[in-house]
């Protein structure tokens, strides 16, 4: 069964972690996948499974992939306003909280090629002085890219790399050497670089300042939380955390408090738990003092009758002693129910079971309360009641009965429901806002990462442009050389044509036939007289073996190999031959070795003529 692309991608991450002990799981999937695909395109691979095998086969590929994933874009005093605030406000606060002899420890996490660590060093020297800096300050720069760390340890920078260093700091802390700038060796000893994985290695502790700029944005939220917890542990009490422009701590306010949010500077917050205890005591006691007058009793009864809260009074025998107007209306009771046993009333079990509660309160003398009891009165609209069953005590705390108080809390219930609904809606809105913030933060980080990639690409294009310019100059130089060679070749060709024409003229002027063969006896030259003598044109015989020609000369009778081997120098022969017209004649043949400019034997020269014509031509 074929696996999906996402499964193959996750298996590739697992394979890298298992085989090379490098864990990329904490990185943001979108950015990580994009960087990996970019590297895979460079090596011509489209499938994650195939690339996993390629990593095993090529020992150097992991290093290339590593460099592709880690975008080491950094510079001196990057985001200058934040660095100015760090130097003018934060570092003086760190020094003010320290005893003169106490060490100052600073960590630059994800330092890349070291520009950030050396920027911190320059600010600290400016604040403490050279001597105190050397004695008290230690700066640790860490990264997981070993190549970048090696560059940081060398502390050698190009003119372009130091262009953001203020001129006064550049002249004070760098030594120019052949167009490059070297950080001062006496200050360099206070800056230590090492390999460190934020996601799994133990942190550097007892820190006063921790700078981790534009590194957290490559981690997912879970890994960010883990790393920030580690940072919280690593910092001293109220130590400072310096983040990058694209990073913030909106969801980690329990760990850090903003010192300058616009510059992404935070300080450590002490973590502690508050255990608040609340105790609500409610007691209802009815104590009788002196006997009340008749008017006072009447006043009490009228007040109870007119109360907007329903009251039902029950005596110690369980008989109903009084029902006020609100209770009669609410529960459909009448004056006829006064004096009746409470347990026989519908009220004793509706809206809720009250008989056992009444008996318990009469027996123990302790108040009980039932809350949010649902009840549907005769009008049919449901309401909610808080029911209080309070004992009534007389002189000497002798029980007289109890008061059942039915308080309508429907509006409070509705308000609570509305509040709960509003809280839920607020929570949903907050969740959506938090999601939007995280998406915005992720988008900002992606944009920042893309911007950094574009900056890197721009630098690469600039380098490629310079390389192309160099190649263009080389091609220009090569082209000029070729033009010179071509002119020289043309001149030599003209000379050769002249020499060839001169040679042809000489050969055409000779009365004898001339043939020149190479060491394999293939014909190189066949003059006009030879054509007339044997009836074969030069174009037909050039390149063919002399022994294969169908002419009237018995060349097999000539000791040709003797001339090729050097055993014969010059000889003349007279052979019976037949010319192109079929006439038999005595052919006079002179043979001599054909030597090159180095004196080596490269073939044979044969001169052929009619012996009888030669005799006739003699004076």
Please tell me about this protein's structure.
- 25% of the residues are buried.
- Helix 2 crosses helix 4 and helix 6 packs across helix 7.
- This protein folds into five domains: 65 residues, Chemotaxis Receptor Methyltransferase Cher, domain 1 (Orthogonal Bundle), CATH 1.10.155.10; 189 residues, 3-Layer(aba) Sandwich (Rossmann fold), CATH 3.40.50; 115 residues, 2-Layer Sandwich (Beta-Lactamase), CATH 3.30.450.20; 94 residues; 108 residues, PAS domain (Beta-Lactamase, 2-Layer Sandwich).
- It is of the alpha+beta class and 619 residues long.
- The two termini are 106 Å apart.
- The strands form four sheets. The protein has a seven-stranded mixed sheet. It has a five-stranded antiparallel sheet with strand order 12-11-15-14-13, with helices on both faces. A five-stranded antiparallel sheet has the order 17-16-20-19-18.
Rg over C-alpha atoms, rounded to the nearest angstrom: 55 Å
Spatial arrangement of strands, main beta sheet: 6-2-1-7-8-10-9
DSSP summary: helix tally: 19
CATH topology of the largest domain, by name, is Rossmann fold
**CATH level 1 name of the largest domain:** Alpha Beta
Distance between the termini: 106 Å
Task: From the structure above, extract its key features.
single chain; 619 residues; alpha+beta; Chemotaxis Receptor Methyltransferase Cher, domain 1; Rossmann fold; Beta-Lactamase; 5 domains; 5-stranded antiparallel beta sheet; 20 strands; elongated; disordered C terminus
């Amino acid at each position: 069964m074929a696996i999906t692309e996402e499964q193959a991608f996750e298996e590739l991450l697992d394979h890298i972690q298992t085989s090379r002990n490098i864990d990329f799981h904490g990185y943001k999937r979108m950015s990580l996948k994009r960087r990996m695909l970019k590297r895979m395109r460079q090596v011509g691979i489209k499938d994650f499974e195939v690339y996993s095998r390629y990593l095993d086969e090529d020992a150097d590929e992991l290093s290339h992939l590593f460099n592709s994933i880690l975008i080491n874009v950094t510079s001196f005093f990057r985001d200058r306003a934040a660095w100015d605030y760090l130097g003018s406000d934060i570092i003086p606060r760190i020094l003010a909280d320290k005893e003169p002899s106490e060490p100052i420890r600073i960590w630059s996490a994800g330092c890349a090629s070291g520009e950030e660590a050396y920027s911190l060093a320059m600010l600290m020297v400016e604040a403490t002085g050279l001597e105190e800096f050397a004695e008290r300050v230690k700066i640790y720069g860490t990264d997981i890219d070993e190549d970048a760390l090696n560059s940081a340890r060398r502390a050698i920078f190009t003119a372009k790399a130091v262009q953001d260093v203020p001129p006064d700091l550049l002249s004070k802390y760098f030594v120019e050497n052949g167009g490059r700038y070297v950080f001062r060796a006496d200050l360099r000893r206070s800056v230590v670089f090492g390999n460190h994985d934020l996601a799994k290695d133990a942190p550097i502790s007892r820190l006063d300042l921790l700078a981790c700029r534009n590194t957290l944005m490559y981690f997912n939220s879970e890994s960010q939380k883990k790393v920030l917890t580690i940072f919280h542990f690593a910092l001293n009490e109220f130590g400072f955390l310096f983040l990058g422009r694209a990073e913030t701590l909106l969801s980690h306010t329990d760990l850090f408090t903003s010192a300058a949010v616009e510059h992404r500077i935070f300080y450590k917050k002490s973590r502690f738990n508050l255990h608040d205890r609340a105790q609500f005591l409610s007691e209802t006691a009815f104590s009788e003092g002196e006997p009340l007058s008749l008017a006072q009793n009447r006043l009490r009864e009228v007040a109870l009758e007119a109360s907007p809260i329903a009251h039902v009074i029950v005596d110690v025998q369980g008989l109903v002693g009084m029902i006020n107007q609100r209770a009669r209306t609410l529960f459909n009771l009448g004056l006829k129910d006064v004096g009746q046993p409470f347990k026989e009333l519908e009220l004793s079990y509706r809206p809720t079971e009250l008989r056992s509660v009444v008996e318990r309160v009469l027996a123990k003398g302790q108040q009980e309360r039932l809350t949010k009891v649902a009840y549907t009165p005769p009008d049919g609209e449901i309401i909610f009641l808080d029911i209080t069953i309070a004992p009534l005590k007389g002189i000497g705390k002798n029980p007289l009965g109890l008061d059942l108080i039915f308080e309508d809390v429907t509006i409070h219930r509705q308000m609570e429901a509305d509040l709960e609904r509003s809280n839920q809606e607020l929570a949903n809105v907050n969740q959506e806002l938090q999601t939007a913030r995280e998406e915005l933060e992720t988008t900002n980080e992606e944009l920042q990462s893309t911007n950094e990639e574009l900056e890197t690409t721009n630098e690469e294009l600039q380098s490629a442009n310079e390389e192309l310019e160099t190649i263009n100059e080389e091609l220009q130089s090569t082209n000029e050389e070729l033009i010179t060679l071509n002119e020289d070749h043309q001149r030599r060709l003209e000379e050769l044509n002249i020499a060839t024409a001169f040679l042809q003229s000489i050969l055409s002027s000779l009365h004898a036939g001339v043939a020149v063969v190479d060491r394999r006896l293939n014909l190189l030259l066949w003059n006009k007289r030879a054509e007339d003598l044997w009836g074969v044109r030069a174009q037909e015989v050039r390149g063919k073996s002399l022994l294969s020609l169908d002419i009237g000369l018995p060349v097999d009778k000539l000791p040709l190999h003797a001339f090729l081997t050097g055993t014969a120098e010059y000889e003349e022969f007279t052979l019976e031959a037949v010319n192109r017209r079929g006439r038999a004649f005595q052919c006079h043949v002179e043979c001599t070795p054909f030597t090159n400019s180095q004196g080596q034997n490269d073939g044979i020269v044969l001169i052929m003529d009619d012996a009888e014509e030669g005799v006739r031509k003699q004076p």
